[in-house]
């Protein structure tokens, strides 16, 4: 099925290790997003890429970096993992409306990466 | 800044009864509101959105939502609940910046819906 694919699905890291979470979408969407989900806090935006070639910080960007590799792929990197980054990470994508600026298209989500940092 | 609040951590209903999951919002300008559902170990799935027009919005799986501007609310409703509706529900509002593309969303904390047979 078409959609948003995240890899890996599960990962355990030690404090200080680095890793990259991968995300790819095959819906020809313009915009992509990385969120983290923590109990009782909903989803919080880490970084987003409104279109290929641009990335911007969201609500909680500290400790993370991103790369919009091409239109399909948007990766999230933890350079030096910390226990506070234990979370479930979701990638999402959305289509840009015809006029571009006022996009009201829904976001489509992957099934998440469950990351534990010891 | 835009925000949404979901005042109930959990809602319990009996199968066949109507259900309501509450959401209130705070925005500058016109609100663009969304409801998503999350099943265990899955990503969020879009249910419905309000952009403009009729205050009653119909969405997937028999859900609908009522936009009320005077009460700044966007409650999710279904006339007859199913056990399979049990899930985590999120309300979201577009974080609007006229100079930006894309569709940044601000999510509520979520409400667990439990439907008992």
Helix percentage range of chain B: under 10%
- What is the percentage of strand-forming residues of chain A? over 45%
List the secondary-structure elements of chain A in sequence, H or E. Answer: EEEEEEEEEEE
**CA-CA gap between termini of chain A:** 34 Å
Radius of gyration of chain B: 14 Å
Mean pLDDT of chain B: 92
Biggest sheet overview of chain A: 7 strands, mixed
Pair with the biggest interface:
A-B, 33 and 27 residues
Spans where pLDDT lies below 50 across 5 or more residues of chain A? none
Estimated structural class of chain B: mainly beta
The shape of chain B, in one word, is globular
Count of separate DSSP helical elements of chain B:
0
Helix content of chain A: under 10%
Outline the low-pLDDT stretches of chain B.
Answer: none
Task: Specify the overall morphology of chain A.
Answer: globular
What count of helical segments of chain A does DSSP give? 0
Oligomer: heterodimer
Count of strand segments of chain A: 11
What structural class do you assign from the helix and strand content of chain A? mainly beta
Task: Describe the model.
The complex is a heterodimer of chains A (118) and B (117). Helices cover 0% and strands 47% of the residues of chain A. Chain A contains no helices and 11 strands. Chain A has strands at residues 4-7, 10-13, 19-25, 31-37, 43-49, 56-57, 64-68, 74-78, 87-94, 108-109, 113-117. In chain A, β4 (31-37) and β5 form a beta hairpin. Chain A starts with a strand and ends with a strand. By secondary structure, chain B is mainly beta. Chain B has strands spanning 3-5, 10-14, 19-21, 24-26, 33-38, 44-50, 56-58, 64-68, 73-78, 87-94, 105-107, 111-116. In chain B, β7 and β8 form a beta hairpin. The mean pLDDT of chain B is 92. Classes of the chains: A mainly beta (118), B mainly beta (117).
